[in-house]
From TrEMBL, chain A:
Domain SUF system FeS cluster assembly SufBD N-terminal: 22-169
Family (UniProt): Belongs to the iron-sulfur cluster assembly SufBD family.
SUPFAM superfamilies recorded: Stabilizer of iron transporter SufD
GO biological process: iron-sulfur cluster assembly
Name the record gives this protein: Fe-S cluster assembly protein SufD
Pfam families: SUFBD_core, SufBD_N
Organism encoding this protein: Pseudozobellia thermophila
Residue ranges constituting the SUF system FeS cluster assembly SufBD core domain according to the UniProt record: 176-406
InterPro entries in the cross-refs: Fe-S_cluster_assembly_SufBD, SUF_FeS_clus_asmbl_SufBD_core, SUF_FeS_clus_asmbl_SufBD_sf, SUF_FeS_clus_asmbl_SufD, SufBD_N
UniProtKB/TrEMBL annotation, chain B:
Residues covered by the SUF system FeS cluster assembly SufBD core domain: 211-452
Residue stretches making up the SUF system FeS cluster assembly SufBD N-terminal domain: 123-203
InterPro entries associated with the record: Fe-S_cluster_assembly_SufBD, SUF_FeS_clus_asmbl_SufB, SUF_FeS_clus_asmbl_SufBD_core, SUF_FeS_clus_asmbl_SufBD_sf, SufBD_N
Homology family: Belongs to the iron-sulfur cluster assembly SufBD family.
Name the record gives this protein: Iron-regulated ABC transporter membrane component SufB
Lineage summary: Bacteria, Pseudomonadati, Bacteroidota, Flavobacteriia, Flavobacteriales
Family annotation (Pfam families): SUFBD_core, SufBD_N
Bilayer-crossing regions: none
Organism: Pseudozobellia thermophila
Length: 439, 481
């Protein structure tokens, strides 16, 4: 049975476990209909031209993980947390919430679970207003997630509030199942003038196959500030389809950083909708790949109102047999005058078998705008390499140093110093060098 | 000169098509519709050998199975392929030896267009193979060219007289089943130009062809084949204007360029077909397939100035097969009123040390939509491939759109690819900079628009550049300068 049929038949079993009287279930049913109609996207579709999901569809994923026996000791997984500083933690093991590893709060702000938000009446007014409001109702994988939406992180920051510490959302896969499909659903709401920082990580602990189809909805009200960091450094058999939808209102600032260093197949669909004026949207990414890894960054910024800005900066270093895809789309509506949209994508190929496909795309309907995109594919500068070597720096380190420098301006805007240090270490490890200092 | 952006915009909007007139020449037109019999009839009418008829029929077979492409960023009413007459030739067919024999009305048409088929042309050193409603009616400078061994004639003539060349190269760059319109063209092409430059010959003059669509309700299916043998050079010009007409006309041409080892082809186009009136009625559908193949050390350079047509769908491409070959693409596309253009290029790097340059300038005004769509592909064996692309768009008015869809695919680590795109209106800081230096706003605008398109206009051959300005008329350059 192929994956689509399996998912369709599992939906009935899923209905037995959720409250089908709740209005959210209508949303689920509607989404399921859309998925049934569209199925998995194929390479024939423009948006999936360079990424194939074919091999994933042949895998017999288990859709409902076993509820018991999935425990982890904190000391075994400590290194995946940002343990240098204190954080709020929302931790899931094989898709099931782990209260033991987590640290949630209801003290002034809500940092808790999607499952409670979807079931408890006190959250209903919020869910009615925000749930599935910015996520695409058309895109099939998002619909698939919506249909099975039950668990994930729920974060609500009221007006003028700011949580005391950053929030970590971590998904562990233990390998209890031979192959596991996870569909977390996150909802993050920052009310007027609120501020928060989120670090999201998906981590598989075995070589068993895992596919995560995640949907995150972020709502940033007037003057809200949201920093979102995605760390994608997963095991060799883990695949991730990440769909993030961001709705921004007047003067809000949302920054999303994506660090892709691992995993078998990673697809990032990052969508920004600017529903207000004087909005700032930033998306930055560093991708360093080897092996047969495949990362596909798909970004969309829809400038709907005037006087907004967007900045995109994606750097990629591709080695061995890896493949990188970047597709950045900027749409500027007719009334969105004075838009300033900037997009840059720089890539380095360091192996003969690596491939990069990039498609920066502008669709502009307003005249008083400044939009630019730049895209390069090249190698490390031989002269710079020579300069470093002439000063006694070995070739390998010299190359790494240059690659560091290449990726560095993406790291500059990371606002949590410990996280920055951590990512520096990850980059050094990925490049196989120890520079003996932090950049 | 007092000239502001407002005025420029107004002029662009109100500009009526200046070359809209209709020449009353009796035409030998085929009944509408398309089937195998029509394909055979066209072939027979042109007195083609059997291999050509079979070639056409094969293309027709592919075409029948194909679907009209919909991926382009244009919206239009699909042409009804059964409502088009696929062949139309001026009735007074015999070839003329001198201009006196040519139908005076035809000459008048050319005069209105500012094309001097006569002595002026000779002085300018341009040989013209005029295609009027699909059949060549006059070819000049043939003798001079013949002395050098250059063949420059209509493609139907070439099929009869140089079948070995045509057979070898036709469809070699644009295969019959390449795409929907190429297949259609392969099946029903009425005429076009053929050019062969022998080994080591540098063509002494710019070769040029003027295409005209004249007969109501006839689609024009031109086929151009240019072969530059080893070490040769040719500069080829193609310019188009068409009379005003209320119904949509279809143009689906195929141009194939073959540059053998060390050869260079420069192909320039000025396209100023009827773009439809202010409300977007009428206008030409321009669905063209243009592609060139570069062997070792060869170079192909495409230059185009696109101002006409209601819908344009055109991607002059270079297949850089040989080592050290070079591909270039320079384009200005101006859209106004309801015009839609989806144009760009493909650079396929196959050989080592291949280089390509893409410079594309889009200017949109009125309610038009202007898209750049390009592909730069570096294959795994293309060591040291180098590409630079730049596409800039200028928007005038708040109802038009500019879009870019660049595809970049690199499979070799030694590839160096740069792509840049900008979209803007004339910047206030740019004007301020000029003002600051004592240049008034009107002049500053002129200067900026001038500079915006200069890069491409400069690439046009001298003789053509003058004519291009005249044909353009609408050109921001000429009127502002």
């Amino acid at each position: 049975m192929d994956l689509k049929d399996k998912l369709i038949s599992s939906f009935m079993a899923f209905e037995n476990n959720v409250d089908i009287e709740h209005p959210v279930h209508d949303v689920r049913t509607e989404a399921m209909k859309n998925f049934e109609l569209k199925g998995f996207p194929s390479k024939k579709e423009e948006a999936w031209k360079y990424t194939s999901l074919k091999s994933l569809q042949k895998t017999d994923f288990s859709i409902f993980p076993k509820e018991e026996g999935n425990t982890l000791e904190y000391k075994d997984v400590k290194r995946y947390f940002l343990h240098e500083i204190d954080t709020y933690k929302i931790v899931f093991i094989d898709g099931i919430y782990s209260s033991y590893l987590s640290e949630t709060t209801h003290d002034g702000v809500d940092i808790c679970l999607m499952s409670s938000a979807l079931t408890k009446p006190m959250y209903k007014p919020v869910i009615d207003v925000y749930f599935n409001k910015v996520a695409s109702k058309d895109e099939s994988l998002t619909s698939l997630n919506t249909a099975f939406s039950r668990e994930g992180a729920y974060i609500y920051i009221p007006k003028n509030k700011m949580p005391k510490k950053p929030i970590e959302i971590i998904h562990f896969a233990t390998g209890n199942e031979a192959s596991l499909l996870l569909q977390p659903r996150n909802l993050i709401i920052a009310e007027e003038n609120a501020e928060l920082q989120v670090i999201e990580r998906h981590q598989s602990l075995t070589s068993n196959e895992v596919l995560t189809n995640s949907v995150t909805e972020i709502f940033a009200a007037d003057s809200a500030i949201v920093d979102y960091y995605k760390i994608q450094n997963d095991a060799e058999n883990a695949s991730l389809i990440d769909n993030t939808y961001i709705d921004q209102k007047n003067k809000s600032v949302v920054k999303v950083h994506t660090f892709s260093f691992g995993g078998k197949l990673t697809r990032n669909n990052l969508n920004f909708y600017q529903n207000g004026q004087y909005i700032d949207s930033t998306m930055k990414g560093v991708t360093i790949l080897g092996d047969k890894q495949h990362v596909d960054h798909h970004t969309l910024v829809h400038h709907i109102e005037p006087n907004c800005e967007s900045h995109q900066d994606y750097k990629g270093i591709y080695g061995e047999n890896s493949t990188g895809v970047f597709n950045g789309k900027i749409i500027v509506d007719k009334i969105a005058q004075k838009t300033n949209a900037f997009q840059q994508n720089n890539n380095i190929l360091i192996s003969d078998k690596a491939t990069i496909n990039t498609k920066p795309q502008l669709e502009i309907f307003a005249d008083d705008v400044k939009c630019s995109h730049g895209c390069t594919i090249g190698q490390l500068d031989e002269d710079a390499l020579f300069y470093l070597r002439s000063r006694g720096i070995p070739k390998k380190e010299a190359r790494a140093l240059l690659m560091y420098a290449f990726a560095n301006n993406v790291l500059e805007s990371v606002r949590i110093p410990e996280l920055k240090a951590r990512i520096n270490k990850l980059i050094a490890k990925k490049l196989g060098v120890n520079l003996g200092f932090d950049l | 000169m007092a000239y502001t952006e407002e005025e420029l915009k107004k002029e662009l909007e109100t500009k009526e098509y200046e070359y809209g007139f209709y020449t009353d020449i009796e035409s030998d037109t085929m009944p509408v519709g398309l089937n195998e019999d029509v394909v055979i009839a066209i072939s027979k009418k042109k007195g083609e050998p059997e291999w050509m008829t079979l070639w056409r029929l094969e293309a027709f077979k592919y075409w029948k199975e194909m679907e009209e492409p919909e991926w382009a960023n244009v919206k239009y009413e699909k042409p009804d392929f059964q409502a088009i007459s696929y062949y139309s030739a001026p009735n007074k067919k015999p070839k003329y030896d001198s201009l006196d024999e040519v139908d005076p009305e035809l000459l008048d048409t050319f005069k209105k267009l500012g094309i001097s088929i006569d002595e002026q042309k000779k002085l300018a050193g341009v040989a013209v193979d005029i295609v009027m409603d699909s059949v060549s009616v006059a070819t000049t400078f043939k003798k001079t060219l013949a002395e050098k061994g250059i063949i420059f004639c209509s493609i139907s003539e070439a099929i009869k007289e140089h079948p070995e060349l045509v057979k070898k190269y036709i469809g070699s760059v644009v295969p019959k089943k390449d795409n929907f319109y190429a297949a259609l063209n392969s099946a029903v092409f009425s005429d076009g130009s053929f050019c062969y430059i022998p080994k080591g010959v540098r063509c002494p003059m710019e070769l040029s062809t003027y295409f005209r669509i004249n007969q109501a309700g006839t689609g024009q299916f031109e086929r151009t084949l240019v072969i530059a043998d080893e070490g040769s050079y040719v500069s080829y010009l193609e310019g188009c204007t068409a009379p005003s007409r209320d119904e949509n006309q279809l143009h689906a041409a195929v141009v194939e360029l073959i540059a053998l080892d060390g050869a260079e082809i420069k192909y320039s186009t000025v396209q100023n077909w009827f773009p439809g009136d202010k409300e977007g009625r009428g206008g030409v559908y321009n669905f063209v397939t243009k592609r060139g193949l570069c062997e070792k050390n060869a170079k192909i350079s495409w230059t185009q100035v696109e101002t006409g047509s209601a819908v344009t769908w055109k991607y002059p491409s270079c297949v850089l097969k040989g080592d050290n070959s070079i591909g270039e693409f320079y384009s200005i596309a101006v859209t106004n009123n309801h015009q839609q253009a989806d144009t760009g290029t493909k650079m396929i790097h196959l050989g080592k040390n291949t280089r390509s340059t893409i410079i594309s300038k889009g200017i949109s005004a009125g309610k038009s939509q202007n898209s750049y769509r390009g592909l730069v592909q570096v294959n795994s064996r293309a060591e040291n491939a180098r590409n630079f692309s730049q596409c800039d768009s200028l928007l005038m008015g708040n109802e038009c759109g500019a879009h870019t869809f660049p595809y970049i695919e690199a499979k070799n680590k030694t590839a160096q690819i740069e792509h840049e795109a900008t979209t803007s209106k004339i910047g206030e800081d740019q004007i301020f900079y000029c003002n600051q230096r004592g240049i008034d706003t009107e002049k500053a605008i002129a200067l900026i628009v001038n500079g915006f398109s200069k890069e491409v206009l400069n690439k046009l051959p001298m003789e053509f550049a003058v004519e291009a300005q005249k044909l353009l008329e609408i050109s921001l350059e000429g009127s502002v300068g």
